[in-house]
Specification:
The structure is a homodimer of 132-residue chains. Chain A has strands at 9-12, 32-36, 52-58, 68-69, 80-81, 94-104, 109-112, 122-128. With 132 residues, chain A is an all-beta fold. Chain A has a domain at 9-60 and 94-125: YaeB-like (Elongation Factor Tu (Ef-tu), domain 3, Beta Barrel), CATH 2.40.30. In chain A, the strands form two sheets. Chain A has a six-stranded antiparallel β-barrel with strand order 1-2-7-6-3-8. The first copy, chain A, has a two-stranded antiparallel ribbon with strand order 4-5. The radius of gyration of chain A is 15 Å and the shape is globular. Chains A and B meet through strand 3, strand 5, strand 6 and strand 8 of A and strand 3, strand 5, strand 6 and strand 8 of B.
């Protein structure tokens, strides 16, 4: 029996449609606001402005049946295995975004630097950045 | 309605118990084998030895009710918000592991470099590494 994801919050962004999304990561992406749900607010009490974190989102509009796809915006290329791409259309559409925290408020509102994610995208985790 | 995760494969590792786990990431962690389930094998056809990828796992033994916890192995420290830690005990116990592919076989067996994950841990995604 496979487990359900829990949504810990959601994103508010100026990107309202997929067509508004920049091609990759921080490139021209707008700042976004994360609204943490009340039952998870204690979990963010040690986040602070200036920290670099890894934000995980659930790309809720994705097609989860995709196993092979075109490389991003390159329809002349051959189909690739989805696990060699960062396509949002994949069996588990988890977005992994390195971001910088700009502000955190006690009522669970976090502002972060540029991020390619649509308005209303569910947030599923926040972690310290990976050490190399 | 919150969606279910799909397991795309599982890990075979010499780490059979939590007590066997190295403290963080690659430090002394053993090579592991990933067994991709038949229905997802087409998705790995473009993975190859030498590639660096981000492996996402579902830490299936985690306590998903944890919102605050001790920093890892530091029981004198104050409780921290879980989203400032890499504790496996968290609402969505997703492991994010940068690894190097050592080999890939046509029947869905991938060997990767050092990784801190228990034997039988479900695999949920493989992505190209993050660009900085």
């Amino acid at each position: 029996m496979e487990p359900a994801i829990k949504f810990i919050g959601k994103i508010q962004s100026a990107l309202k449609n997929i067509e508004d999304c920049p091609l990759q990561g921080a490139e021209n992406a707008p700042e976004v606001t994360i609204i943490i749900s009340p039952e998870f607010i204690e979990g963010i009490k040690d986040l602070a402005a200036g920290q670099e974190v890894l934000l995980l989102t659930w790309l809720h509009l994705a097609d989860r049946t995709v196993i092979k796809c075109y490389p991003w915006h390159n329809y002349d290329a051959p189909f690739m295995g989805v696990f060699s791409t960062r396509s949002p259309d994949r069996p588990n559409p988890i977005g992994v975004h390195p971001v910088k925290i700009l502000s955190v408020s006690a009522n669970g509102i976090i502002k972060v630097s540029g991020l390619e994610a649509l308005d209303q995208t569910p947030v599923i985790d926040i972690k310290p950045v990976l050490k190399k």
